[in-house]
Write a structure and sequence with these properties.
By secondary structure, this protein is of the alpha+beta class. It has helices at residues 10-22, 51-60, 71-75, 78-84, 94-101, 103-112, 126-136, 159-171, 239-259, 293-299, 305-312, 391-404; strands at residues 2-7, 27-32, 42-43, 65-68, 89-90, 120-123, 140-144, 153-156, 182-186, 191-200, 204-206, 211-212, 215-217, 221-224, 229-232, 265-275, 278-285, 328-335, 360-364, 367-370, 373-376, 380-388.
Length: 423
């Protein structure tokens, strides 16, 4: 079997690692990949947004199944392109991927389908948005509607912060076309929870729930990032809660998309806030979350190849249900100094030999090889995933390894998952 993973970040490294464990004899290609994926697959220098090049690659190499990691190629219609070419791909069509590509679309879909979420308004005009903020007050959440690489959402405690976020999106056009529409949402209180569903258009099967830490600094302080670490399982992510989320959130979303002529087939990410009124949707993503994938995939004992292939072929997943490995997983993200705003790249990385094992995995997120040396190449550089019988044990493995990895300006949180236990 030949498998192709599209993308080159930590999520795609985790996907390639999972596929290698699921199908040890498969030929795995990653486009474009990174130095980490090169150790377990063949990297092919085709960018994730090069749909023509990816189609040629899948056709010329006779790929049996393509799995798309990032959201941008899905929003650009790679699934539609592959379907028209008779190629098998796991991931939603462009119409279905709007559930992430347009927050305004997703919010309207949730409202029409009675899916619990924050109340909201959308604006294209800055003056109208400012008038709404003045009348509504703070706290609020201000979001660029389009794809902004995880950086277009601002949790604003004051009106001044909200106005500044609004100016960045609509006036300064910091996010380009992604910020043509702004979404202003009610602020929700509670703990966040991430649940991935494998969907065949009608059914939604959950993987293990996880929790991401978005803030840059320990104690949940500092700016929002793409994620500084994650862990699973989560104490309040009970089977009963996940089933309630499946029934009241995932299935209504699939039904609404189906009625809109955009049946959803692929991974659906539900980012949730566990409020006093119950779980409410913060956001939907049309793919696996990052860095949550770096803990959920290592804990997923069942093979994902067979259900993904069935979905990609337009078949149902029937009564398939994943088995989860005993124990826990926790990942610590090592970021560049200055992330998420500005940071240097090309800095040498020291990875001690023998660090990785069955219980310790290092996923490359923003790395490159220059003149034979591993160097930094992004804001989030590595995700260090520890596995253990308990979350505390997984955390200790992750943090001990994170301490030993070296590069100039290494930034990381030592409190990922800390609230799950007490000394």
């Amino acid at each position: 079997m030949k498998l192709l993973v599209v993308g080159g970040g930590g999520r795609e490294h985790a996907l390639a690692d999972k596929l290698r464990r699921d199908a040890p004899d498969a030929e795995i290609l990653v486009a474009p990949g990174n130095p980490g994926t090169a150790r377990l697959a063949e990297n092919v220098p085709v960018r994730a947004n090069d749909l023509d090049g990816l189609e040629r690659l899948a056709r010329d190499r006779d790929v049996h199944l393509t799995i798309v990691g990032p959201e941008a190629p899905l929003a650009a219609g790679i699934a539609d392109r592959f379907a028209a070419a008779g190629l098998t791909l796991f991931g939603p069509t462009a119409a279905a991927a709007r559930i992430e590509a347009s927050k305004a679309f997703a919010k309207r879909l949730m409202r029409n389908a009675s899916i619990p979420t924050a109340s909201f308004r959308t604006f294209e005009d800055a003056d109208a948005a400012r008038a709404y903020l003045d009348a509504h007050g703070a706290p609020v959440v201000v979001k660029a509607s389009g794809l902004a690489g995880g950086k277009g959402a601002f949790v604003c405690a004051t009106l001044e912060e909200a106005r500044a976020a609004l100016d960045q999106i609509l006036v300064d056009e910091r996010f380009g076309d992604a910020g043509e529409t702004v979404v202003i949402e009610e602020f929700m209180e509670g703990e966040e929870l991430s649940v991935f569903f494998l969907c065949d258009g009608e059914r939604a099967v959950p993987l293990a729930p996880s929790r991401d830490h978005k803030r840059l600094e320990e104690g949940g302080r500092g700016p929002n990032t793409g994620g500084m670490g994650a862990y699973a399982p989560v104490a309040d992510g009970t089977p009963e809660l996940v089933e309630a989320v499946r029934r009241t959130i995932a299935l209504p979303a699939l039904a609404a998309l189906g009625e809109a002529g955009a049946p959803y087939r692929g991974f659906l990410y539900a980012g949730l806030m566990l409020t006093r009124e119950g779980p409410r949707v913060v956001e939907f993503n049309c793919r696996l979350g990052d860095p949550e994938a770096q803990v959920v995939l290592p804990l997923t004992h069942s093979s994902l190849v067979e259900p993904m292939l069935a979905v990609a072929r337009g078949e149902g997943i029937g009564d398939w249900a994943p088995a989860t490995r005993e124990g826990a997983a926790l990942t610590t993200v090592l970021a560049s100094r200055g992330y998420p705003v500005s940071y240097s790249t090309g800095l040498p990385i020291t990875l001690p030999g023998g660090l990785e094992s069955d219980d310790l995995r290092i996923y490359h997120a923003g790395t490159a090889t220059r003149e034979g040396r591993l160097v930094t190449a992004g804001g989030r550089v590595l995700a260090v995933t520890g596995l253990g019988a308990t979350l505390r044990e997984a955390a200790e493995r992750s943090r001990e390894a994170a301490e030993r990895i070296e590069f100039e300006g290494k930034t990381w949180r030592r409190d990922i998952g800390r609230t799950e236990w007490s000394d």
